[in-house]
Amino acid sequence: MAQKRISTAIRKKQIIDAARKLIVQKGSEHLTIRSIAKEVNLSEAAIYRHFKNKKEILSFLMSHIISSMLDEIDRTSSNGAPSLETVQAILRNHLSRIEQSRGMSFQIIAEVISFGDRNLNRQVYESINIYIERLKDLISAGVKGNSIRDDIDLDACAMLLFGMIQGMVNVWALGRYGFDLTDKFESLWLVFQEAIVKRPVIISDRPTADAGYHG
Fold first, then answer.
1. Does the pLDDT at position 17 exceed 70?
2. Which pLDDT belongs to residue 50?
3. What is the pTM of this model?
4. SS3 assignment for 85-147
5. Which residues, at least 6 apart from 81, have a Cβ–Cβ distance to it below 8 Å?
6. What angle do CA 106, 93, 190 make, to 5 degrees?
7. Which residue has the higher pLDDT, 204 or 113?
8. Which DSSP string corresponds to 20-59?
């Protein structure tokens, strides 16, 4: 019985990996049960034994993607106190994985949205909000750790980070992966960092203009 459960889990992973590959290569509109079955070398009936329809495959794929992204946050942030460098490391790791797999995470999210299903879009919306909230928590911790300015809008800052990454990955994919994603991220990160990094307060020891005046 245990072996059957393991086999089912492996088969589901093969199916969603195939769905991911087909979406990246052809777009979500060309994703069909038949194309997935061909990619995994199974019959369509075998696919239906694991998933009711294409929508359920996309839903499972979205859950898998968001879970992986949140796990990445947990792994990286557990190495020390959250800081601006922690946020940078997390996003760099995400982009490195995306670059290696030609569009895992952020590009897939855009494709699932383009599928146009209201319930799937709600799932994407809720999942993205969870991810953005985790970014917000990291930024907030960085504020408390004195590495990030304490006067920034945390919601806006987290949303800006997500939008920066999503937009960059979309341009990268539309341009047929014609530039180094992680290099481009480093350039954008420098701009973002300049806006939110907390700088030390410099207290001047020069006398004021009226320091010697005693009336």
1. yes
2. 93
3. 0.77
4. HHHHHHHHHHHHHHHHHCCCHHHHHHHHHHCCCHHHHHHHHHHHHHHHHHHHHHHHHHHHCCC
5. 141, 145
6. 90
7. 113
8. HHHHHHH-GGG--HHHHHHHHT--HHHHHTT-SSHHHHHH
